[in-house]
């Protein structure tokens, strides 16, 4: 009986020993790790931008600065809505004059054009990007997901200041205008609570 019929390896048949299995397992683990890192990179990158102002991301603060300086910067406000979100979203003021170190409040308006509740998250950035490190928000609708009932309209505040440390940045010494821009993106509805999923089926017996 020849080798092909008996299933025995011939000179041209590769032998797969334990080493091949280890290599395959290592490759699979590497791919899985890379996928996990890709997902983790998104929140980590967002956190990095928020802390450093990288990419025009703003910082978050809890207390206003103790001093102001004699310098005024015009802050312009921009609003955008991503495709698939049935909202009208716009700033209630196109711009305002802000003294560096002074706490200011601006408002954005959002209205749900759909007849049913919709959910959205806002991304944001500042231009020029380098100014993001000095633009500090104390209160913002972008900090959490927003839900609007069908036809609902809301006014959403943003409380912010420009860090006086901007005066020490030589690259921004001639800065006259900062643009704060938001974009709302559709978000998934929250998952129903366990009680809601189970329903009111009554007691068994």
How helix-rich are the residues, as a percent range?
10-25%
Largest beta-sheet details: 5 strands, mixed
Order of helices and strands: HHEEEEEEEEEEH
CATH-derived topology of the domain at 55-186: Ctag/Cox11 (Pfam 04442)
- Taking Cα atoms only, what radius of gyration do you get, to the nearest Å? 28 Å
CATH homology group of the domain at 55-186:
Ctag/Cox11
Number of helices: 3
- End-to-end separation in angstroms reads 70 Å
- CATH architecture call of the domain at 55-186: Sandwich
Biggest sheet, strands in spatial order? 1-7-9-5-3
Textual characterization of the structure:
By secondary structure, this protein is of the alpha+beta class. The protein has a domain at 55-186: Ctag/Cox11 (Pfam 04442), CATH 2.60.370.10. It is built from 3 helices and 10 strands, in the order ααββββββββββα. It has helices at residues 3-6, 18-52, 194-198; strands at 59-60, 72-81, 87-91, 95-99, 104-112, 118-127, 135-140, 146-148, 153-162, 177-186. The strands form 2 sheets. Strands 1-7-9-5-3 form a 5-stranded mixed beta sheet. It has a 5-stranded mixed beta sheet with strand order 4-2-10-6-8, with no helix packed on it. The chain is elongated and about 50 Å long. It is a single-pass type II membrane protein.
